[in-house]
DNA sequence: GGAATCATGTGAT
DNA sequence: ATCACATGATTCC
C-alpha cells in the first residue's frame, strides 16, 4: 500500500521534515481565509516553491493546496456529518470480539485497576525513548504490560515533554531504555507493521471515567471524527461533555488513542495538548490516508 | 453574528 | 469546598 511507502520515506533520521511541515501548517492556518499561494508560503520560509511542494506532498500525500482544503471548517464538518453515534455503537461489537481495528492500527487495551491508579505509578517501571516521527519527536513510554504513553515535542522541548509525562505517575520508576521502546516506535509509525495477529498492546493508566472516555476514542475509525458530546453520549453520561473534554486532554497515549479526532460540535478544533498545529497536521495527514 | 452567561461532571488542591 | 477545564446551548446586544 502506498501509505507504507509514504511513511517510510518520511522517517528521516533527524525527523526534520515535520519542522517544515509545521511551519507551512502554521502559516496556512493563521489566515486560511486568505488562501495563501504556494509561492507566498515558500517565500515566507525562504524555500523554492517546487522544493516545498515536494517536501510537503511526500509528508502528507497531499499538496499544500489540498491540505489547505482538508483543514477548513467545512471539511471538519464533513468528518462529523456521518452519524457519529451509530458509528461508535457499531464498533463496540468489533471491540468485543477480539482486537479492534482502530484507525487501521490493531490495538488491544487493558486498563489498570483502581488500586494501581491510586498508587500513582508506585511499583511500576516505565521505560522510555525518543524517536523521530511524522509529527515531530515522539516520546514513547512502555511497561511490561504494553505501551503506556506517547507524547510529542518540537526540537529542544524534549525535557519539558518528559516532565509532562512523568508527573502524571510520580511514583513510578523511569528508565531510559531504547531497546525496550524501539519496537513500539517502529510499530506505531510504520503502518506496514500493523497487523491483526500481532496487535499493539496498550495499557490505559487513568481513573475509571478517563479510561471509559479513552476506550470510546479508540472506536473512531481513521478519517472520521466525533464531537465531545458524542463521546459523552457513548459512555452513558450525555451531560458530561465538558468533563469528557478534560479527560480527552489527559490522554497519555496520543495518536494511538486518537484524541485528535475529537472536535467541537461546530467542527472547530477546540484544543490539543501537544499544540493545535499538530492536531491539524494529524487530521490533514489522515485525510490523505483513506 | 458575536459576546456574555449559564448548566454541567470530573479531578486536583 | 472550591476551582479550572480541549463543551455546548441560550440570551442578550
Cα end-to-end separation: 11 Å
- Domains, number: 2
The profile of the biggest β sheet is: 4 strands, mixed
Low-confidence stretches: 1-11, 91-101
- Relevant CATH superfamily of the largest domain: Winged helix-like DNA-binding domain superfamily/Winged helix DNA-binding domain
Give the tally of β-strands: 9
Q: List the quaternary state of the chains.
A: single chain
Quickly give the CATH architecture of the largest domain.
Orthogonal Bundle
Radius of gyration: 19 Å
**C-alpha geometry:** globular
- What proportion of the residues form beta strands (DSSP E)? 15-25%
**Which class of the largest domain in CATH terms?**
Mainly Alpha
Q: Give average pLDDT, whole number.
A: 85
The structure class reads alpha/beta
**CATH topology name of the largest domain:** Arc Repressor Mutant, subunit A
Number of helices: 14
* Series of secondary-structure elements, N-terminal to C-terminal: HHHHHHHEEHEEEHEHEHEHHEH
What percentage of residues falls in helices of 4 or more residues? 40-55%
Placed side by side, the strands forming the largest sheet appear as 5-4-3-6
What does this structure look like?
The protein folds into 2 domains: 72 residues; 209 residues, Winged helix-like DNA-binding domain superfamily/Winged helix DNA-binding domain (Arc Repressor Mutant, subunit A, Orthogonal Bundle). The protein is of the alpha/beta class and 290 residues long. The N and C termini lie close together (11 Å). Helix 2 packs across helix 4, helix 2 packs across helix 14 and helix 7 packs across helix 12. It contains 14 helices and 9 strands. The strands form 3 sheets. A 4-stranded mixed sheet has the order 5-4-3-6, with helices on both faces. A 3-stranded mixed sheet has the order 1-2-7. It has a two-stranded parallel ribbon with strand order 8-9. The chain binds a DNA duplex (13 and 13 nucleotides) through helix 12, helix 13 and strand 9.
Amino acid at each position: 500500500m502506498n501509505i507504507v511507502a509514504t511513511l517510510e520515506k518520511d522517517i528521516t533520521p533527524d525527523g526534520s521534515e515535520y519542522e517544515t511541515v509545521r511551519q507551512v501548517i502554521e502559516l496556512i492556518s493563521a489566515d486560511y481565509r486568505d488562501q495563501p499561494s504556494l509561492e507566498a508560503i515558500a517565500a515566507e520560509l525562504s524555500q523554492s516553491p517546487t522544493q516545498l511542494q515536494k517536501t510537503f506532498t511526500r509528508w502528507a500525500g497531499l499538496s499544500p493546496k489540498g491540505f489547505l482544503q482538508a483543514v477548513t471548517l467545512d471539511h471538519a464538518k464533513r468528518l462529523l456529518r456521518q452519524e457519529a453515534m451509530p458509528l461508535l455503537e457499531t464498533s463496540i461489537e468489533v471491540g468485543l470480539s477480539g482486537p479492534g481495528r482502530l484507525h487501521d492500527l490493531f490495538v488491544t487495551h487493558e486498563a489498570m485497576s483502581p488500586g494501581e491508579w491510586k498508587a500513582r505509578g508506585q511499583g511500576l517501571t516505565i521505560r522510555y525513548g525518543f524517536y523521530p516521527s511524522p509529527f515531530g519527536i515522539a516520546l514513547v513510554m512502555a511497561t511490561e504490560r504494553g505501551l503506556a504513553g506517547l507524547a510529542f515535542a518540537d526540537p529542544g522541548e524534549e525535557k519539558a515533554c518528559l516532565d509532562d509525562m512523568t508527573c502524571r505517575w510520580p511514583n513510578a520508576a523511569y528508565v531510559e531504555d531504547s531497546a525496550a521502546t524501539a519496537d513500539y516506535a517502529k510499530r506505531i509509525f510504520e503502518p506496514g507493521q500493523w497487523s491483526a495477529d500481532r496487535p499493539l498492546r496498550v495499557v490505559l493508566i487513568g481513573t475509571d471515567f478517563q479510561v471509559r472516555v479513552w476506550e470510546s476514542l479508540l472506536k473512531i475509525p481513521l478519517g472520521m471524527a466525533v464531537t465531545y458530546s458524542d463521546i459523552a453520549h457513548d459512555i452513558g453520561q450525555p451531560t458530561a461533555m465538558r468533563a469528557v473534554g478534560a479527560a480527552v486532554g489527559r490522554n497519555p497515549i496520543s495518536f494511538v488513542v486518537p484524541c485528535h479526532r475529537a472536535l467541537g460540535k461546530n467542527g472547530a478544533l477546540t484544543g490539543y495538548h501537544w499544540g493545535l498545529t499538530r492536531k491539524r497536521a494529524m487530521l490533514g495527514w489522515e485525510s490523505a490516508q483513506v
